[in-house]
């Protein structure tokens, strides 16, 4: 145990050291929020895979494998399919926009200012996504080292907040790359083959378990479909994912690196399901399937390797938590805080008048991180928090975002009405049917689609000047001067977008 603790302590200190290194590189808003848009394909792929494969994909994915066998892989497979779809069909255009947030993209496409609605929905998604990742620390630390739940959450959450606050996306990128390597070694190359061997190999597992554990559809067709609707579609539009797309050096890097990350996710999902299936052979009476990970590590791995695999699980949790936290900070500083200042008559705060933008972003990250830890201490349902986050994201924003990318006739009024109607429909349906029901996402999507099409057709088309500027940006033409200033940490990226005549 002492050796394992030393390995984990070295890992945590290494994350802080990388955060310190990132702090020295984060000298502008672009550095802090999107790593200066300078990542190459290998680093892009590693960090993209790290941010989408978190505690739910690791501890939760193994738990699903314990309960349902190989069909437990579908949750992570849906995540991989979402990453592949994003980079095959949309990443090229997204990368060329040269913005910081999804809400900025909506302003560019529709004209005017829609940030209050889209920013609030995206803020709720990114904040709630951070909470279950922070909660997962209690599962790992408490299960293996018998730490009190509150101590585990505060310890793990504080490390994430510390390195994220120091260097922003540069710190998150470097820690994510280290975490990607550790996850690959610890979970795929070590724990998966050891678990299968300990359970008697594939033949021994087949003899010991019910045949349903080896059916690809044992988890249920409706559940599989819902995974794809929530997670595959959610990954197309999440601020935490788009913010990683913005870090790529160019659209070719984003496409190639993203495809690699998507394939990696598919492999990761299968490995998690196999570990869980092996745990069902060795420990058939676990009260909580999520304990399968910690039990397998404790029972099958020698000292030292166990510490490495625990560090791999912590890597999965920390990468998602830090990615969501920096995304929430970006939405707060870029989309919401300027609106609050205008509401109180203070206007937007340019860097030369309002102080160092990097320093202000650090403050937002620190405050939001502390709030996340506080909420995580108050709730205990990881799945419910994650489901609420994705239901709000997909039901509220998917139609407006994809409509803007794919349908020229979509209007700002249609987008705003769609976001409001979809979000309300999701919340009301969840209140009526329960947090974990499948119906809310379908009701929200259906409502948003009908409202978007109807209102867009009933209102004047988007100003041709706005569409011209939008098409110019999608073609990757040079950003206008206001955008160039933004890259250096000046005015908001969408400030140069022509105002809509509907205003």
UniProtKB/TrEMBL annotation:
UniProt entry tagged with the keyword Cell membrane: yes
Segments of skewed composition (Low complexity): 484-503
Keywords: Cell membrane, Membrane, Transmembrane, Transmembrane helix, Transport
Record-annotated membrane-spanning stretches: 6-23, 44-66, 72-90, 120-145, 151-172, 184-204, 224-242, 263-283, 303-332, 363-382, 388-407, 414-435, 441-459
Location of region: Disordered: 477-503
Subcellular location: Membrane
InterPro entries in UniProt: Na/Glc_symporter_sf, Na/solute_symporter, Na/solute_symporter_CS, Sodium:Solute_Symporter
Gene3D superfamilies found in the cross-reference section: Sodium/glucose cotransporter
Chief subcellular location: membrane
UniProt xrefs under CDD domains: SLC5sbd_u3 (cd11479)
Mode of membrane association: Multi-pass membrane protein
Domain of life from the UniProt record: Bacteria
A Pfam cross-reference name: SSF
Keyword Transmembrane helix: yes
PANTHER family: SODIUM-SOLUTE SYMPORTER-RELATED (PTHR48086:SF7), SODIUM/PROLINE SYMPORTER-RELATED (PTHR48086)
Family listed: Belongs to the sodium:solute symporter (SSF) (TC 2.A.21) family.
Protein name: Sodium:solute symporter
Annotated source species: Nocardiopsis codii
Upper taxonomic lineage: Bacteria, Bacillati, Actinomycetota, Actinomycetes, Streptosporangiales
């Amino acid at each position: 145990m002492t050796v394992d603790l030393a390995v984990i302590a070295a890992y945590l200190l290494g994350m802080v050291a990388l955060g310190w290194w990132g702090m020295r590189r984060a000298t502008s808003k672009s550095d802090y929020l999107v790593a200066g848009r300078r990542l190459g394909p290998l680093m892009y792929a590693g960090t993209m895979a790290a941010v989408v494969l978190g505690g739910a994909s690791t501890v939760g994915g193994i738990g699903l494998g314990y309960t349902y066998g190989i069909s437990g892989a579908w949750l992570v497979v849906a995540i991989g399919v979402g990453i592949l779809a994003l980079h095959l069909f949309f990443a090229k255009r997204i990368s060329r926009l040269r913005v910081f947030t999804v809400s900025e993209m909506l302003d560019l496409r529709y004209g005017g200012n829609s940030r209050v609605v889209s920013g609030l929905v995206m803020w709720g998604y990114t904040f709630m996504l951070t909470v279950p990742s922070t909660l997962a620390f209690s599962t790992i630390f408490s299960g293996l080292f018998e730490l009190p739940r509150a101590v585990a959450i505060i310890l793990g959450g504080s490390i994430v907040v510390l390195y994220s606050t120091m260097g922003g996306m540069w710190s998150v990128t470097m820690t994510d790359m280290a975490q990607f390597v550790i996850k690959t070694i610890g979970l795929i190359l070590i724990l998966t083959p050891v678990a299968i061997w300990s359970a008697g190999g594939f033949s021994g597992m087949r003899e010991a378990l019910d045949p349903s554990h080896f059916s690809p559809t044992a988890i249920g067709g409706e559940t599989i479909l819902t995974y794809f609707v929530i997670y595959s579609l959610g990954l197309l539009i999440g601020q935490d994912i788009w913010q990683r797309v913005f870090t790529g050096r160019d659209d070719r890097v984003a496409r190639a690196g993203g495809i690699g990350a998507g394939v990696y996710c598919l492999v990761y999902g299968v490995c998690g399901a196999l570990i869980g299936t092996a745990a069902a052979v060795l420990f058939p009476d676990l009260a909580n399937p999520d304990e399968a990970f910690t039990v397998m590590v404790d029972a099958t791995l020698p000292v030292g390797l166990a510490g490495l695999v625990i560090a791999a699980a912590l890597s999965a949790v920390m990468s998602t938590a830090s990615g969501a936290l920096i995304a929430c900070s970006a939405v707060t500083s870029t989309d919401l805080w300027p609106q609050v200042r205008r509401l109180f008559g203070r206007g937007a705060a340019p860097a030369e008048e309002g102080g160092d933008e990097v320093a202000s972003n650090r403050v937002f990250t620190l405050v939001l991180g502390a709030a996340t830890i506080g909420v995580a201490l108050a709730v205990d349902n990881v799945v419910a928090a994650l489901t609420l986050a994705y239901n709000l994201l997909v039901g509220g924003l998917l139609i407006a975002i994809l409509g803007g990318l794919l349908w020229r006739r979509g209007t700002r009024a249609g987008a705003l009405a769609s976001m409001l109607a979809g979000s309300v429909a999701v919340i009301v349906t969840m209140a009526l049917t329960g947090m974990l029901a499948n119906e809310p996402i379908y009701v929200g999507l259906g409502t948003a689609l009908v409202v978007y099409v109807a209102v867009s057709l009933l209102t004047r088309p988007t100003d041709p000047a706005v569409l011209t500027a939008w098409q110019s940006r999608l073609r990757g033409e040079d950003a206008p001067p206001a955008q160039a200033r933004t890259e250096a940490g000046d005015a908001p990226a969408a400030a140069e977008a022509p105002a809509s005549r509907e205003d």
